Amino acid sequence: MHGGSGLSDAQFRSAIQAGISKINVATVMVNTSTQRMAEAAQQQGASIFSLAEAERLAYKECCNHVYDVFSNR
Fold it and tell me: 32: left (phi > 0), else alpha (psi -120 to 50), else beta?
């Protein structure tokens, strides 16, 4: 499936149940990390390290969520 932007968790699960085995999710990951980095940049004392940490945590959160949805846990 090319892109899953805007789909709900239930829609992803239905697609997987129907046999879809590849789903692209990069857009939501990039958008989330960009938003979190922008928020971190607004904080007092922001540094390249705080921006990188915000990005890392955003990607980790997104990956964990996708894993949970796609593995039907």
Answer: alpha
This prediction's pTM: 0.81
Distance of alpha carbon 20 from alpha carbon 18, whole angstroms:
6
Cβ atoms within 10 Å of 3's Cβ, excluding its own: 12
Phi first, then psi, for residue 25 (nearest 5°) are: -130, 15
CA distance 9 to 15: 10
What confidence tens digit (pLDDT) does each residue in 14-53 have?
A: 999 999 989 999 999 999 999 999 999 999 999 999 999 9
> What are the structural domain ranges in the chain?
9-70
